[in-house]
Design a protein that fits this description.
It contains 14 helices and 67 strands. By secondary structure, it is mainly beta. The strands form 17 sheets. It has a six-stranded antiparallel beta sheet. It has a five-stranded antiparallel beta sheet with strand order 38-39-42-43-49, with no helix packed on it. α8 packs across α9.
């Protein structure tokens, strides 16, 4: 086409310059870190930062004033982060799954200072179990270079811990490293398990383990040499369940070893959730009856573990604790023998006995009660540093505890903040320093975790809390003015907020690090057109802006003016207006996120949030609104279980000529576990789901409806009612287990639930149900089945709730869903012993088809085989199948689980009749396989182990029944040519002559492993399509589909050149300017979507994983509009100058002509 129009491509250097100029103009990039699990404040230097470690295995430094990421290091999915804290002048992390890596990071820039790999204990390595790791830092104030890091490695599984009974196998290991260089100073392998490590006041190291049978194992080591000085275990308890700082549930036995919290005096504390008792364990040596608990001796000493059991019912106030309620020890630092205990709705400060005396240690007593608190944190200011961990073991320091609770409802939520000073030597034991409250949006949810930073205020500074803050008298009088307090709060929705002086300093929406699904909706219409003065603020600014653009176009602008023009271009107010535009560039990006984690103070037992729905502006990525989805408690009859978002459909997408109607998103949530109904006795609900309708402009939850089944498939139908709500079909999932499906085949029957259940929708579906077909793919059995819609069975009888319309007779917006039976039409069963499904792909239903033919170089047309009923299916042989293939599509590394002799088998299946259109075998190839389908072609990616390279193959389908049709005849008589009666829509399955299908295939080497693959989509499908490759380097490469044309030959003829066919090359290029993400990396990239605009030349591309990147791109360059930075002032000036010049020259010519006549 470029050759026919006489256009020439830009020179390479000019293309690079153009690409640099537009970077940042039509794109934006947002970095995320995930849910914070660890945090350490650094306020001593000029660069005040908070160092965090997250559940996404990310280590990052955040600017304490703005919350921006100063630096970020992503460890990887297999490098689980176990611990993070300051050690000397470095940030120390311990991570790993099959082995442990201890790393030291430079705080200013995140550079890796040193790294030491530690082997697992032999018991854990022999069983192949995962590892748990923790560490402490031993500091020397007079010699910082001698700081040491002591790392404990233990087994994370009960099998590995049981291997500790073998004297030859080590169940745990302790390594002492230099904090300055990472050199291993000493190591100790222990036959007894250990899961927590702490530093006692006199300098010895205490290792603690708690087995599932409630047996405590306590061991002390000499910190200088690593020699065991004392070790003992308690006999098993009659109870079988324990709730401690690492247990995941208080209502069921833990599957492996748990960890007990150890006080500063060396007392181990845990809660027995079966008997409702709090257990304390103390290691007492036999050298003397009144010896200090855990005292260090010169050689190994006989010791015993004294265990005490105290009923919680007799210890805690009855108004805050009921017998049988869950209770958890909070793993937060406290001075002396203090320990925090959490129950639903309250937190208690307990004392575990005397300061190290054997006769009083372990005697529990209540110190203080804090009702309405859900998260606790501690901070230490001053004192001599004895151990790391943020001040653990400091002598003379002041201990402060921050307690945060929440109350309220509706649109806002109030965080109640309390700061107390712990005084173990005082009779009052606790003094209140600060009481404050902060209002946050309700979608944040209650605080799940909090990190307190207490810092000494400068002389003359005001109180720590202004306005709302209240100081307490007594022991805390005057302390609030000496110290300031910051709280880093992790919300139930994974959000991260910094609170200080009664205000929210900054906040981060870390829920966007776990996006599940994405939809795109239109912004609302602007009520009235704004004048130029209103948009540009005033006429002077408008004129000044266009004058600068004119000077820049004429190369007359200075360097400062050029920079100003670039800033105006990137921060154009036209891009960020909250209204739709005529070109369709401004959109609402609806991002559905996974549910947040549980409550830390309750040991992770809270249900967490039910997921969130975010609306982002496509212009700059800002959050327009955020809505918390129902988590189960708001659904009638479903209780307070956890619902995880599974899918989202833009249920209502109003036409742009209907400005009074708003878009609506339908969200499907699946319950994670079955639970017993409160009203139905012990009757267990096996499956449940929740369907929620959300307003796309405001985020209001319009309706929630409980379903008594778990949908297997969500299918939006191309049927729209008068209210512009499209019909949605939910395919009910069978209840048989995977093993049963292997033996008996596919579960029967299959039911289809159609929503909404209005009379109009029912009639619409009844009139088109013969045209509706769907298919199900089961990776377990290797079966692919196609279904049609049968007779109507019954009406959906589940109850509706929430929002407007809930509980009405007509069932609200969703109505009473109609149930139909599904009729099995065809079935394809793959041999499970030789083929495992690795990838499935299908064409987009909403994709536009421009033409049915392709013009060849000889001026004839070639008919494409357009069918949206094709299914691409790729399988790998078990020898070459990835480990995750049995569960669906894998995205692992090249050749994982593969051996020589494997194969990748590709199928193209007609989903209406079940015909296998094409079957291709790639011998010796390996998965994982990634694929994308569009129009009449498919592109898929796999690994070639023989060449140690990745390959991309393409298949194109053509209709060979019509040959040598001249393009002139086609244009003149196209409607009369058999088979060409429809120029744009795909043929129906019955009309496709499968026996006359022509298949073109070609393969190319590709330079990268992939994580995902997609294709661009435009309004009418005229623009050349680009295949979007999400590389393993977390970047998006856009490659023109012409590079993947299967007609490419080494020496194309003149006719081939005129048809745009490139010369064949065995490798696909990856030019630098083809990367849509430029220099950015979308960490954890997992999906790419493309959305058409109202301009054929332009498409919107969103790629997301842990990060989010958005770009506006033109695959064939912009050919149907002027650029946003086009200088209309220069155009008007040019027209004016030309008009004046014409008038002047016309007058001069008339005078000259008059003179000539007089002569």
């Amino acid at each position: 086409m470029a050759r026919l129009l006489g256009a020439r491509p830009l020179p390479p250097l000019l293309r690079v310059l153009v690409a640099v100029m537009v970077v940042g103009t039509y794109d934006w990039y947002q970095q995320r870190i995930g849910r914070a699990r660890f945090a350490s404040f650094l306020t001593s230097s000029q660069r005040k930062r908070v160092l965090v470690g997250t559940d996404r295995n990310v280590v990052a430094a955040l600017n304490l004033r703005t919350g921006d990421i100063a630096w970020r290091r992503v460890l990887g999915d297999a490098d689980t982060l176990h611990a993070l804290d300051m050690g000397g002048r470095y940030l120390i992390t311990v991570s790993g799954t099959k082995m442990a890596a201890v790393r030291a990071w430079a705080v200013p820039d995140g550079a890796l200072a040193w790294e030491t790999a530690l082997l697992l204990p032999s018991a854990a390595a022999s069983t192949g179990g995962a590892v748990t790791a923790s560490f402490i830092t031993i500091s020397a104030p007079d010699a910082p270079s001698t700081d040491r890091v002591v790392v404990l490695l233990g087994a994370a599984s009960a099998a590995a811990a049981a291997a500790g009974s073998n004297p030859a196998a080590a169940a745990s290991a302790v390594h002492c490293l230099s904090a300055a260089t990472g050199e291993v100073l000493w190591s100790a392998a222990l036959p007894t398990p250990a899961h927590s490590i702490s530093l006692l006041p006199h300098g010895s190291i205490l290792l603690t383990a708690l087995s599932p049978d409630l047996s405590f194992s306590l061991t002390t080591l000499d910190a200088a040499s690593g020699k065991v000085t004392a070790s003992a275990s308690s006999p098993p308890s009659s109870s079988s369940s324990v709730s401690s700082s690492s247990s995941s549930s208080s209502s069921a036995p833990i599957p492996g070893p748990a960890a007990a919290y150890v006080t500063a005096t060396g007392t181990a504390v845990a809660v027995d959730s079966v008997s409702g008792n709090v257990l304390t364990a103390v290691l007492v040596t036999s050298a003397t009856a009144d010896a200090t608990v855990g005292a260090t001796v010169g050689a190994t000493t006989d010791a015993t573990v004294h265990v005490r059991s105290t009923p919680l019912a007799s210890l805690l106030p009855k108004e805050h604790y009921q017998s049988g309620s869950s209770a958890t020890v909070v793993p937060e630092k406290a001075p002396g023998s203090f320990v925090w205990l959490s129950v639903p709705g309250a937190v208690f400060l307990l004392s575990a006995g005397g300061a190290g005396q054997a006769e009083s240690a372990g005697q529990m007593s209540l110190v203080d009660s804090f009702p309405g608190v859900s998260a606790v944190s501690a901070s230490v200011v001053g004192g001599a540093a004895g151990a790391g961990g943020g001040g653990e073991g400091r002598e003379g320091g002041e201990y402060h505890s921050g307690l945060v609770g929440s109350q309220g409802g509706g649109d806002s939520l109030k965080f109640n903040i309390k700061v107390h000073q712990l005084l173990p030597s005082s009779s009052s034991s606790s003094a209140s320093l600060l009481s404050d409250s902060v209002t946050v949006p309700s979608h944040r949810g209650p605080p799940a975790q909090v990190f307190l930073n207490a810092y000494a205020r400068a002389a003359g500074a005001g109180g720590a809390g202004r306005g709302k803050s209240e100081r307490a008298g007594g022991a805390g009088e005057g302390k609030a003015s000496a110290f300031g307090f910051r709280l880093l709060v992790v919300g139930e929705d994974d959000s991260l907020s910094l609170l200080q002086q009664g205000e929210v300093v900054w906040e981060r929406e870390e829920a966007l690090a776990s996006v599940v699904a994405v939809s795109v909706a239109e912004l609302p219409e602007e009520e009235e057109e704004l004048s130029v003065a209103a948009v540009e603020h005033d006429l002077y600014e408008w004129a000044h802006t266009h004058l600068l653009r004119a000077k820049a176009s004429l190369n007359l602008a200075s360097a400062d003016e050029q920079a100003l023009v670039h800033r105006l271009r990137t921060a154009s107010p036209e891009k960020v207006r909250p209204f739709r535009d005529r070109n369709g560039f401004r959109r609402i990006l609806l991002l559905l996120t996974a549910p947040g984690g549980g409550n830390r103070a309750s040991g992770g037992n809270s249900r967490g949030s039910g997921g969130k729905l975010f609306a982002l502006h496509s212009g700059d990525g800002r959050v327009l609104w955020a809505a918390a989805l129902p988590s189960g408690g708001s659904a009638v009859g479903l209780g307070a279980s956890v619902f995880s978002p599974e899918a989202m459909v833009l249920w209502r997408d109003p036409h742009r000529m209907s400005p009074d109607q708003t878009p609506e998103a339908l969200v499907l949530q699946i319950r994670q576990q079955a639970q017993k109904q409160q009203e139905g006795g012990d009757k267990e609900v096996a499956h449940a789901a929740l369907v929620t309708v959300v307003n796309g402009h405001t985020g209001d939850v319009l309706e929630s409806k409980g379903l008594p089944f778990v949908p297997r498939l969500v299918v939006p139908l191309p049927l729209v009612g008068k209210d512009e709500r499209r019909l949605v079909m939910l395919v009910e999932k069978g209840e048989k287990e995977a093993e049963d499906r292997k033996e008996r085949g596919w579960y029967q029957p299959v039911h289809v639930h159609v929503f909404p259940g209005t009379e109009e929708a029912r009639g619409l579906f009844e009139g088109h149900k013969k045209e509706v077909f769907f298919y199900l793919v089961d990776a377990v059995t290797g079966a692919v089945e196609g279904y049609s819609i049968g007779e109507r069975v019954e009406e959906e009888g589940s109850s509706g709730s929430g929002g407007s319309g809930g509980g009405r007779d007509d069932g609200g917006r969703l109505g009473r869903g109609v149930v139909y039976g599904a009729v099995l039409v065809w079935r394809v069963v793959l041999p499970a012993d030789s083929e495992v499904i690795s990838a499935v792909a299908a064409p987009k239903r909403e994709e536009s088809q421009n033409t049915q033919v392709r013009v060849l170089g000889d001026r004839s047309v070639q008919f494409k085989l357009l069918s949206k009923n094709l299914l691409f299916l790729a399988t790998t042989t078990p020898a070459a199948a990835p480990a995750s293939a049995a569960g669906g599509t894998g995205t692992g590394g090249a050749g994982e689980g593969g051996e020589e002799g494997g194969a990748v088998v590709v199928y193209l299946i007609d989903t209406v009749g079940g015909a296998v259109v094409e079957r291709v075998v790639h011998k010796g190839m390996q998965g994982p396989v990634l694929a994308v389908m569009a129009e009449n072609w498919v592109v898929y990616h796999y690994f070639n182990p023989a060449a140690s390279r990745h390959e991309v193959s393409t298949i194109e389908l053509l209709d060979s029944s019509l040959k040598d049709v001249p393009v002139i005849e086609y244009l003149k008589y196209g409607l009369s040519i058999p088979g060409a009666s429809n120029l744009t829509a795909p043929l129906s399955a019955e009309e496709i002559p499968w026996e006359r299908v022509k298949r073109l295939r070609q393969s190319y080497y590709f330079p990268y492993a992939l994580k995902c693959i997609s294709v661009t989509s435009t309004l009418a499908g005229i623009t050349n399509k680009h295949v979007l490759f999400g590389t393993a380097l977390d970047q998006v490469l856009a490659l023109d589909r012409r590079f993947l044309d299967p007609r490419r030959v080494p020496e194309p003829s003149q006719q081939d050149k005129e048809a745009g066919i490139m010369p064949y090359s065995d490798s696909l290029p990856a030019p630098g300017q083809a990367y849509l993400t430029h220099r950015y990396r979308v960490e954890g990239l997992k999906h790419i979507i493309s959305v058409p605009t109202r301009l054929e030349s332009t498409t919107l591309v969103l790629s997301y994983g842990m990060d989010v990147f958005f770009v506006r791109t033109a695959p064939s360059r912009v050919f149907d509009s002027l650029g946003e930075d086009f200088s209309f002032a220069l155009l008007l000036g040019t027209i004016a100058v030309l008009s004046i010049a014409i008038l002047v020259t016309f007058g001069l010519s008339r005078k000259q002509e008059l003179k000539q006549r007089w002569k």
